[in-house]
Amino acid sequence: MIFVTSFNTAKGTNLRTDDSLLRLSDLIQQRSHENAELDESTSAVREDVDALARRDDGSTAAEDEKLRALETAAGTEKLGGRAVSVTLNDAPPNAQAAPGYPEPQANDLVIHQQDLQAVVNALWQGGARGIQVMDQRLISTSAVRCVGNTLILQGRVYSPPYKVTAVGDPDRLKRALTASPAIQNYQLYVKAYGLGWKVDEREAVTLPGYSGTVDLHYAKPVQ
User: What's the Cα-to-Cα distance from 122 to each of 8, 116, 119, 142, 165, rounded to whole Å?
Assistant: First the structure.
């Protein structure tokens, strides 16, 4: 019965190799590159459309100013100013527990989705005017998700170290990071197992505008 089950499951392939996992990893990387290229193409087309709209819309100066304010709030326009950058990283491959701490499990040594979400949430709480994760601007519908030890953000895949940059008052942003209970918990793992944590204050940063699609597929109007 075991041999028959193995035969039916394998369907002519070797069950004891990682070939299928490698193929899946290759597919994810390929799709990530394709999404990056599509993002660039979408951004270029959007710039052309916006230029034509500005030329032909016949709006007043006040209406144009209101539109620019909405675009800035939506994250589709570039944003500059003073900023704080936070870098998170997995523990070193040879990480050992600090004295007084138990030996680490595999999950203790890597960055998790909740760690990145804690940083993003704290920065918003600290009054960030805009946030960029890796090389992508966040908007209201952005979801920071991790699968294994990789980050999937807006159709693209990233590996650690992860960098989060927020434009705003650096003092307020750093106070919000320090006050976050989730980040305080993360700091325990930094101390115990050597997870990476670095906060840099930057005087002049320009965040790119979000260039992906802004269509909503699942939202419903409030009745």
Answer: 51, 10, 5, 16, 12
Residue 115 confidence class, pLDDT cut points 50, 70, 90:
very high
Beta bridge partners of 166: 84, 131
- Is the pLDDT at 132 greater than 90? The verdict is yes
CA atoms within 13 A on the CB side of 115: 28
Angle between helices 170-179 and 113-125 (to 10 degrees): 130
What span, in angstroms and rounded, lies between the C-alpha atoms of 33 and 152?
Answer: 12
pTM of the model: 0.70
Residue in the structure block whose two tokens are 């505008």:
209
pLDDT: which is higher, 72 or 150: 150
Helix (H) or strand (E) holding 83: strand 79-89
Which helix or strand (DSSP H or E) is residue 169 part of? none
In which band, very low, low, confident or very high, does the pLDDT at 187 lie, cut at 50, 70 and 90? very high
C-alpha 116/C-alpha 163 separation (Å) is 9
